[in-house]
Amino acid sequence: MKFARLTTVLAAFTLALSTLPVGGAAAVTNPCRLPEGVLHSTALAARSAVACGAVGRLIDAGDGVALTVPQPGDSVTMDLLFPSGARTYTLTTDEQGRVSTGSAPAKHEPANQFPDLAGQPGACDRDTYVLRDYKWHSPWLFRTTWGTKLATDRQSDFDAAARRALANMTQGRNTCGIRGRNGASGALVGHTARQGNFVYADGQTTCGKRDHHSVIDEGDLPGGSFEATLAWTCTWSETRHGRTRAVEADIRMNSADYNWTYDPVNDPLCKPELPPDKDRWRYDVESVLTHEMGHVYGLVNLSADEDLNLTMYPGVRRCTGHMRTLGRGDVLGMQALYGRR
Question: What does the pLDDT read at residue 228?
């Protein structure tokens, strides 16, 4: 008797499946019938990324750069640093599941990148800063990937530059004679075999999903339709009950397309030559790390030519350490976010 009832139920279930419309199974996994591949932000419109099954999908955040749709209440920001400028891309899923994207260029072509540029206001003359909507509510604890060396064969040199860059931002090191300390904190807590959370997906490199690790490493970085990037920073943040906080951040330095130095003043390959020889061009590790850590802590790229000598101005000059010490605006920006100490 039980066997007969089971046979009847299975037969009814089979009949029900046979009456589903074509594509019914796809509608279950893709209820909003989103196209395959990288999505355009308009594909979701005001619909929930959760309801449409779009969490984890790639969406064009601008210029063909794709970012992964995070969970509701989370955001990811990708900062790309070029020798002559920068670009920033953001992707946010609000607490209702609605997705928004944004992009901001800050690209310049200085007439001379070797050495420091003169004729502009000094770093202590400008109080410009722009802030992100996130900050850290706990220390940023990160590791460097085993084998990250850049300019020498010693990882200890890279680690030392990372620690100095961190101190530049959190202690507000400057030559302006102003008290620069702020309430931000962080630490290099060791090494890891893990790579930074930069993933190759759908034909391009992008920030991956949150993995609960913060890592600084080196590697090859694309430039897309622009020149090759010097460094990338991905920062993940979350908004809960109206408060937004950064929760993890990764930095990657481009070891494939550029040469680096830890001592631009005394590096013999940084001595200017006329005409400049590209094989002798070097970028200062500590300067670039200091700028990228500014993004980690919530500072935005500056774009006015008058801000050219501030750390958060993205035009990186070769063979100089000008970004190591913060300008007045950089100090004020960090103190606006984290208070004075």
Answer: 87
Q: Which two tokens stand for residue 120?
A: 């502009």
Convert the pLDDT of each residue in 115-169 to its tens digit: 445 567 889 999 999 999 999 999 999 999 999 999 999 999 999 999 999 999 9
The two three-digit tokens of residue 260, written as one number: 């680096």
How many Cβ atoms are within 10 Å of 224's Cβ, its own excluded? 14
Whether the CB-CB separation of 220 and 258 falls below 8 Å is answered with: no
Spatial neighbors of 273 by CB under 8 A, at least 6 apart, are 280
Beta bridge partners of 239: 244
The position carrying tokens 């004679």 is 177
Backbone torsions φ then ψ of 159, nearest 5 degrees:
-60, -40
Q: How far apart are CA 270 and CA 302, in angstroms?
A: 27
The pLDDT assigned to 117 comes to: 52
Spatial separation of the C-alpha atoms in residues 260 and 252, rounded to whole Å: 14
Question: What are the DSSP calls for 81-127, one per residue?
Answer: EETBEEEEEEEEE-TTS-EEEEEEEEE---S--SS---SS--TTT--
Q: How far apart are CA 115 and CA 113, in angstroms?
A: 6
Characterize the bridge pairing of strands 215-219 and 140-145: parallel
Distance from chain centroid for Cα 226 = 17
Element (H, E) at 22: none
Give the Cα separation of 309 and 106 in Å (integer): 15
CB 71 within 8 A of CB 97: no
Rounded to a whole number of angstroms, the CA Rg of the chain reads 24
Tokens representing residue 173 in the block: 């090191």
Q: 201: which 2 tokens?
A: 């997906």
Report residues of the chain scoring pLDDT below 50.
1-26, 110-116, 224-225
Q: Are 229 and 98 in contact (CB under 8 A)?
A: no
